[in-house]
Amino acid sequence: MCYNIPMPTDIQIAQEAELKKIEKIARSAGILTSELEPHGIYKGKIKLAALRRLSGRKDGKLILVTTMTPTPQGEGKTTTTIGLAQALKKIGKKPFICIREPSLGPVMGMKGGAAGGGYSQVLPMADINLHFIGDIHCITSAHNLLSAMLCNHIHQGNDLNIDPKKIVWQRSMDMNDRALRGSFEITASSEVMAVMCLSTSIENMKSNLSKIIVAYTKDGKAVTCGDLKAQGAMTLLLKDALKPNLVQSIEGVPAFVHGGPFANIAHGCNSLMATRMALKLSKYVVTEAGFGADLGAEKFFDIKCRAGNLKPNAVVLVVTAQAFRRNGIDNLKKHVDTIKSFGLPLIVAINKKINDSSMDIEQVTVGCRKLDIDCVISKIWEHGGSGGSELAKKVVKLCREKNQFNYLYDVNDPIPVKIKKIATKVYGAADVKYTNEAKKCLDHLHDLKLDKLPICMAKTQYSLTDNPKAYGRPPHFNITVTSLRASAGAGFIVAYTGNVLTMPGLPKHPAAENMDISEDGVITGLF
Predict the structure, then answer these.
(1) Domain ends where: 400, 428, 454?
(2) What is the Cβ-side half-sphere exposure of residue 66, based on CA atoms within 13 angstroms?
(3) Strand order in the sheet with 478-487
(4) DSSP class of residue 8?
(5) CATH of the domain at 293
(6) CA–CA distance, 519 with 212 (Å, rounded to integer)
(7) Measured distance CA(243)–CA(414) in Å, rounded
């Protein structure tokens, strides 16, 4: 008699895994004992001195994992990132994982966890998904300190002549709470998060924080964090948050889990410090950028790579049968074309889920064949590194190819030119429209001489358009910019489109409803 034995859940797999002490993971990665700050048995921070010591070492290969337009369930980018690194280790390479820290908002909302899945996870999974080492709390505190000092300045006499009606700095919290919209933003969208993720030293972070615009005077001049003399104390709160967090995958691959900006309302990449350090410590760095190639990948190339002078070597485009069925072959082709427009080689990883039928996977394979795109069936959720060996071998070959990596636009182009290039070349839009409010913002940014910065588009992740219900590859659409804001500290301009919210809400049945912990500390409901 044959019985169907159900696969264990992610949390069950994580709880059964045997972890190595963080000191051993650090040694295997080439990190000195003096450079490691342990936080318990299985987590640690790496001192910034490590990067200074390694500065003369040649960089490893940089591999980006992205996807086509995703479904609400997600396509497994983080899982693929971890699984690919484990597969690279299986074939004898020296890999490093670089991913973002999960935000409590989505973890308690829809995701229920964001540390990979199955046998391709980073551990300790429960810690990473909850408070981890506290970086996001540090960022929240620094953000709210600036809010408090701004309000206090006005209360104490307003020497800077701030117009209370022109305050642009809200408060922050790491939770989805729609009741706070209009006065709070989720920490993942905070400019402080972006500053931390794009800074290269304590002094650089302090300088970047000082440039954050918090309000405007009654005669239209920008008021900054530096004007309020808040950058020193904020840097003090962030001094440890800037240090990359070291953990391990379920198969012992070292991983930096550091920084967590969203990709639909922020730039969607892990920290520059972590990526730079990993490139010096390993031969292959596998990293991810949030949501589809239209959001995370474009921002990774045009914002993060530009800021850090990074040169990616290859791209893995994750596709699931669910995303392919919902959005179609034309949507996949658009994302493929987008990656190619940056001059990079790519491969499609078909992320096979355990309930996918052979017919489901065959449809995706046939679609890739029609597009003349190399693809590999990935089984890394179910089998870990061994389920991605073929993918790893092909990625190694891609990394040996010469590429012509380039940015999409010149930062010195006018703002409308930069936005139009993103909208037409990446999204496939016919044109860009601006509301009257957005037109005023354009003029204001030009007057402030802040128009020579990269663009961070705030757009729905569920469509190439600014309408989350327009699936596939819609023809003849326009992108409407509703507002623009200078993130002068982070070094980019945020262009808002559609109805993108910086404070999400919880779904009807939040994942938190199923989470629990027993008297002896056994956690359930994280998945």
Answers:
(1) 400
(2) 31
(3) 431-434, 478-487, 492-497, 455-458
(4) P
(5) 3.40.50.300
(6) 45
(7) 35
Q: Give the pairing type, strands 213-217 and 184-186.
A: unpaired
DSSP 8-class letter at 6: P
**Structural domain count, the chain:** 3
pLDDT, tens digit, 9 for 90 and up, residues 452-493: 999 999 999 999 999 999 999 999 999 999 999 999 999 999
Q: What is the DSSP string of 146-170?
A: HHHHHHHHHHTT-TT-EEEEEE---
Asked if residue 123 and residue 61 are part of one domain, the reply reads yes
Identify residue 12 by its one-letter amino acid code.
Q
Q: Is 5 helix (H, G, I), strand (E, B) or coil?
A: coil
Please list, in sequence order, all residues whose beta carbon lies within 8 angstroms of the beta carbon of residue 503, skipping any fewer than 6 positions away: 176, 177, 178, 180, 181, 184, 185, 186
Report yes or no: 197 and 138 within 8 Å, Cβ to Cβ: no
225 and 302 share one domain:
no
Paired residues of 96 in beta bridges: 285
Q: pTM score, two decimals?
A: 0.96
Residues in the chain: 527
Domain range spanning residue 374?
Answer: 10-134+241-400
My answer on whether 274 and 316 are in the same domain is yes
Residue pair 153/159 in contact (Cβ under 8 Å)? The answer is: yes
Contact 304, 285 (CB under 8 A): no
CA atoms in the 13 A half-sphere facing the CB of 355 = 3
CB-CB contact of 493 with 450 (8 Å)? yes
Alpha carbon distance, N-terminus to C-terminus of the chain: 31
Pure H helices in 290-357: 298-299, 306-308, 321-341
pLDDT range class, residue 7, cuts 50, 70, 90:
confident
- 525 belongs to a structural domain: no
Among the listed residues 268, 334, 298, the one whose alpha carbon sits nearest the alpha carbon of residue 471:
334
In this structure, the number of other CB atoms found within 10 A of the CB of residue 28 comes to 15
Same domain? For 22 and 171 the reply is: no
Same domain, 369 and 427: no
DSSP 70-117: PPTT---HHHHHHHHHHHHHHTT--EEEEEPPPPHHHHHTTSS--SEE
Identify whether residues 233 and 252 lie together within a single domain. Answer: no
CA distances in angstroms from 276 to 62, 88, 119, 328, listed in the order given: 10, 19, 27, 36
Longest dimension (CA), the chain: 82
Is there a contact between 485 and 523 (Cβ–Cβ < 8 Å)? no
Q: How many CB atoms lie within 10 A of CB 137?
A: 16
- Final residue of a structural domain among 400, 423, 443: 400
105-133: pLDDT as tens digits: 999 998 778 899 999 999 999 999 999 99
Phi, psi of 248 (to 5 degrees): -145, 155
Which residue in 372, 331, 379 sits closest to 352, CA to CA? 379
